[in-house]
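Q: Could you fold this chain for me?
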Amino acid sequence: MSHNAYRDIVAHYEKCLEQHGDCHKGVDWPNEADADTRYQVMLELVPGGERCSLLDFGCGTSLMYAFLCRNQPKYGHVAYSGLDISAKFVEVCRAKYPDVDFWQVDILKEQDSLPVFDYIVLNGVFTEKVSLGFEEMESYFQNMLSRVFDKARRGIAFNVMSKAVDWERGDLFHLSADRLIGFLTKNISRHFVIRNDYGLYEYTTYVYKQPCTWGGK
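A: Sure. Below is the predicted structure, expressed as structure tokens.
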């Protein structure tokens, strides 16, 4: 896919930031409560109490870090960093949290400039395809996932829109679980968990480098 194609997605989110500012609507989440649910589900990628580094990939204005801080000491074991392709979002993050490491990187062009983290979460990175066609978005999704998984020591989490809905929005990325599983097992890892239990019209997938021990969460 062309660089300009996924820049349309970036431009969409930058427009949301311009219109709504530093809040859930500024990263195009409809309401704050559901956004908090997503942050909690993403952070459950990490087994309870395990000290680790975590990269919030596509961090927006770093609302996940704000959630993490509000819920201390529960997440005291997580060393947070953020990344966004957009300079506008990274500027906001660095102004708010000068002691946190933030990266402005296009991983499809600058993969070598990004260090390795224990865990990487991609919250909302693949839920909207904006003007992209399904095949173009799926190609982008698969390419990104492969690059990001290479930068994780232990695992990643991401969400996409569910196909198990009454109707599908044309600007959202609705991906069937069967199609996802086929890609993961062939190209990424056979060790994964699909979460469809938190009440939203999406699902979250945890993908690990090694098999997980039940009861470790």
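A (continued): The chain has a mean pLDDT of 95.
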